[in-house]
Structures are given as structure tokens and as C-alpha cells.
Amino acid sequence: MWVTWLFVLISLEFGECSCPDLFEQIGECCYYFSHDHTSSGATWYDARTYCQELGTLLDKPIDLAEVGTTDNKCDDLKLMETIGTSKVAHTYFGGSDEGHEGTFQWKYSGQKLNIKNSLWYHDRPLHGSHGDTSDCLLAAIWGDYDRAYFTDWSCDSHYQFVCQIF
């Protein structure tokens, strides 16, 4: 009997994933939201470097966040809801079609993001039609309900970002 209870207690203790300080758990994944810690944004490149350096400090693989690449361990819809409720209009994610216009790829995992994914805004991606490169993935808040959707945007703009522990 005691062995059973001990096993249950140990399972409860180690069964939950815990995130390091400054990170928020959504699903089984840990995210760092830059808007929680600084009011200034960064370019997509600088945001990616920041995430990777954070990973070096914590000795964990960290990069800009991805959706749909972790075998459903992360709650991608909850992540997008969190972006929407943050009221931060623009947030960089870890995808880009730089060098392969129209083919978005997650930079950490190397997996492709389907342009038919329901997280894209209805008339996106832009494919460079904005007069600039529009190569980097951005979650933007649209509509009356503050929903976050993906768009492609200039990598050189300064926006908030979200890092993920992989």
C-alpha cells in the first residue's frame, strides 16, 4: 500500500512539466514572451539571436516559437489565444520563406508551414507584394475579437517575439 502511494506521489511530482523562470507553460511547452519583460521590440534576426542566447544561458535548445512541429505536445491554439489576449499587435515567430519565396519553413525544426494552415490570415501570405521582402513570420491581431493570425512581414521591422524551449 505504501509503495503504491509513494509511486502516485512521485508520478504527480514529475508528471507535470515545469518551465524556467520567465517562461510560461502552454500545453507541455515553455514559452518566453518578450512583451512580458521589455517594451522594446527587435528585428526578426535579433529576436532569433536573443532566443538562442537565452538557450545558451539556460543550457536548453531555445529558438523563436513554432507551431505544429512537436507532435501535439504544445497547444498551438492556446498559444495564439495568448498572443491575442496580450494586446501586442505584432509578434515574431520562427518561420521564414527567405530564399524560397512562398515556402515557409520553421528555422529550428526545418519543417514546412503549409500556406493553407488555418492560422494564416485569410489573404496571407503576401509573397513580397508589400513592396518589401515580407519574408518573416509574424502573428498579428485582427478583427473585433482580437484574434492572432499569421502573416509574412519584413524581417527588419521591430516587433515583440516569442521564444520556445524545444
TrEMBL record:
Domain C-type lectin: residue ranges: 26-164
Signal peptide segment: 1-17
Protein name from the UniProt record: C-type lectin domain-containing protein
Keywords tagged on the record: Signal
InterPro entries: C-type_lectin-like, C-type_lectin-like/link_sf, CTDL_fold
Matches recorded under Pfam families: Lectin_C
SMART domains linked to this entry: CLECT
Highest taxon above the source species: Eukaryota
